[in-house]
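Can anyone check this?
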Amino acid sequence: MFCVECGAEGPVYQGVCASCFAKKHPLVEPPANLDVPRCQTCGAFHFRAGWSRVDLDVAIPQLLREKVRALPPFEHVAFTHVAREEDANNYFLTVKASGRFEDLRQVQDFHVRLRIKPSVCDTCAKQAGRYFEGILQVRAEDRDLTPAEMRAVRTLVLARVERGRDEGGDFISRTEEIHGGLDFYVSTNGLGQRLAKELADTFGGTVSASPKLFGQREGKEIYRLTTLVRLPAFEVGDVVRHKSEVTEVISLRPFVELRNLITGEKRRYKPKDLRGLRRMDAERFEADLRPNPGGGLVATHPESGAERPLGTKGAKPGRAVVVWTADEAYVSALPPVSSKP
């Protein structure tokens, strides 16, 4: 076989040799410039499929694939590049494109300037405008959220929203501390419901929702959903009186678990079944247990030296973690430093 263009012998492609084929059929037609919008707020780049927050090294190959197409008869092309920064919004790219036609691999080098156009993505534009579709409220039963609970709730919510930002455009337009709790103004009703479920699963508590007609869009009624997560009135480590029993809270999820401080018996309850339960003033620390001349044991306060009769059945003399109330002491199943803040 010989080339009909130059007469060279060897493999031919559409009648010409590899050298003539490359002259006749360039692999790509490079643009003079490669322009891409980038959000000034979150750094996302705008691709054909929408906005995405990726590093520049990841964005450049995707931009090349989208904007530099293979010319016939080539169908696919791959790129490697070296980027040289000229300033914050301009990069000079040295690009190597490679493609294949039949068994011929062809390479084409070219230069192109990447121009980054400052812009604002759809999500950040909505967020800046304080747009929201739903409200997520987090409260506690008959008490304010503690500072530690507020920090933990904020951390969980912000982490989950950040994780869903790229896929679903999730965001929070604002957060308010109000009525001893937190209000999150969320981008969609679905986001508020998902966050509410995760908060209830993580911290215990109940979830309720109330929709309110907001308007119409394309003939459909639009509702804003207020989703309320109500945490229990108590925390792990609290001492509560349940019916006639003095108990300590040893777990809040998936059910509230109470331990009877007299018998040591443990029982689990749904949070809604314990509404109205009240905490008792109590301390928790290590103390010495010694026999009481009148019978039973007494616990001695490690600082004041005061004594309380021990109400726990089956306890033995020695050292133990106790719950110290106004009238009695009880052996606790929890560490001396309570898990509550």
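Reply from J.R.: I decoded it. The chain has three domains: 18-122, 130-231, 239-331.
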